[in-house]
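I'm stuck. Please check this protein.
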Amino acid sequence: MKKRVGWQRKIKVLHLITRLDKGGSAENTLLTALGLDKNRYEVLLAKGPSTESKMGFRERMEVDKSLQIAQSDGVGIINIPKLMRRIDLLYDFISFIKILKIIRSEKPQIVHTHTSKAGLLGRLAAFVAKTPIIIHTPHGHIFYGYFGRVTSYLFVLIEKLLAKITDKIISLTNQEGLDHVRLNIACPEKFISIHSGVDIQRFISAKPGGDGLKASFGIMPQSLVVGTIGRLVPIKGHEYLIEAAPKILKEVPGVKFVLVGDGNLRPKLERLTNALNVQDAFLFLHWRSDIPKIIRMFDLFTLPSLNEGMGKVLVEAMAAGKAIVASNTGGIPDLVVHAHNGLLVPPGNPSRLAEAIVTLLKDSNKRQEMGENGKLLAQRYSVESMVNKTETLYEELLAKNGYLQA
């Protein structure tokens, strides 16, 4: 094992992300910035204004609180007012110039970008500014499941070009890295897998809400609860769960489905429950601050996504001891081992999704066994592990560039 060595001086790291919301990429970035050893690193976090986000008031309050914690921990927060997720040539150019000025002024040894837009503008600016080390974490990819074939091809082409100026690309799962290699974005040596960190203790130690929590949502004590958590957007596949519901209810009457999250797809999903006459079985909840307690209320967790970089919420469900039914896509199989801590089904297949959910709802012993297996697997995904692996990567690249003492 490589021995850690002293620094010539404190190393400055600039993290750049398009927006900070309650999504996994934002949480990953914040936890990394917070976790880095402030005796060795000076940490800056540059971000867009999150005006495009569908966050509600409480979510924004939570994000603001997280930023205050980061600042009190010594993380410098820099706002980039025009940095948006959507493509806007004027705003993108203004943001590029702003990022370039920040990098030239702060002179970080490492620029670490997160998500697509920040990865594009940030890596280009870092390259122009001759930043010694450029790292990018895509937090999943958008090569399938999001856009049409032509647009997806364009994104692949852009990533191929950007990879040439990037020292390392961090994939959240092994599968994500393999997807990049399969598309010839870069050679395998360019990638390293570092799982997103999760505060698993929050979910292990969360006290069950019991029948009182169920009652607060109008759920009968004897009802089995199938739950999912995530933005209400097409890629998350909520519609397939709704389409699976009639078959599930026929086999297991009285099941309740709880969907936690906000998004512009909510009205359409609610109309779909009405069209299939399953509206009474579904409960739509806005974003909640008591997610650990909510997950403990579930008898089964499901994630019917069409694509996932990793799916941090799966680790949260595993830590809470819940069996899982999820799509066999993206990085999900890295977390959910079929027939061990859950069941995997083809994405976009309501029939197979229903069969898997019914199988586990009818077998409480199997749910318990899979839940216990998931608890053990969740230990791999701690925040400490993520930060330690990130620091090790930084050290290796710093040593390669002559920033460590001999």
The chain has a mean pLDDT of 90. The longest strand covers residues 11-17. The chain has two domains: 11-197+382-400, 200-380.
